[in-house]
Amino acid sequence: MSTVKKSLALAAAGAACVAIPLSTASSAMADSSGTTYLSAHLTQLNESGASATVTGTLKGDQLSIKIVDSGLLAGAPHAQHIHVGGTNSCPSPTEKGTGVDGHLRVADAQDSYGAIAQSLTTSGDTSPASGLAVTRFPVGTATYSRTFTVPAATATALKDGKAVIVQHGVDYNKDGKYSGSSKSELDPSLPEEATDPADCGVVQASQMSMMPGGGVNTGFASTKDSNNSTAIAGGAAAVAIGAAGVLVMRRRQRTNV
Ligand SMILES: [Cu+2]
Predict the structure, then answer these.
(1) In whole numbers, what is the pLDDT of the chain averaged over residues?
(2) 198 in the Ramachandran plot: left (φ > 0), alpha (ψ -120 to 50) or beta?
(3) CA–CA dist 25, 252 (Å, integer)
(4) 120 C-alpha vs ligand 1 centroid, how far in Å?
(5) By Cβ atoms counted within 10 A, which residue in 3, 91, 125, 197 is the most buried?
């Protein structure tokens, strides 16, 4: 009985203690939501002419990812994956492989970027099993956006900067489709062109929301900007714009997670 009272008293005291240090200045810099901000710039392999910009967030096991690409073969599906393993890096853009005319195949690049950890499909399964699910990958040059659950190992790799994103499919002979007598080492029913890597980039991770170079221009519309960027980016944006409106808007932002 008195034990209960005592523990209640202790609990109350504890609650009072944690309530005191609410407004330390340093806490404004940390991301209390535990969000990891992701970005990558994918550059060409196999002289594909393809590139892509990747942005995203990781909250717990929820990955939200957006890929805006260019230069990929129109009208054809492009497999895209998060790869983990190897040296967690992209092959040199000039590296030669075992494919036709010395092109770099997936197998040639495994030492650099490892195996498929997640398939960045448009719907359904995102596991390695969907690595060549050609009906569920974006077609041509596209903007891809999806939120899905990732296994703990993938989340850790993303946070540690050890994840690499690769898009596949290169039209070497410029005939507007995947063709040629050389077959994919991954699926002999597909031409090599369908699976060779087209571009690649290592995912950078940060605990801070990155205000992109053009962030000032999008400042008004971008209410989704993390509140945690306010302390850092807010000052810079205000200086750049010289408008009080930005500050007013940012002050109105709630500290929701
Ligand atoms: Cu891949």
Answers:
(1) 78
(2) alpha
(3) 19
(4) 9
(5) 197
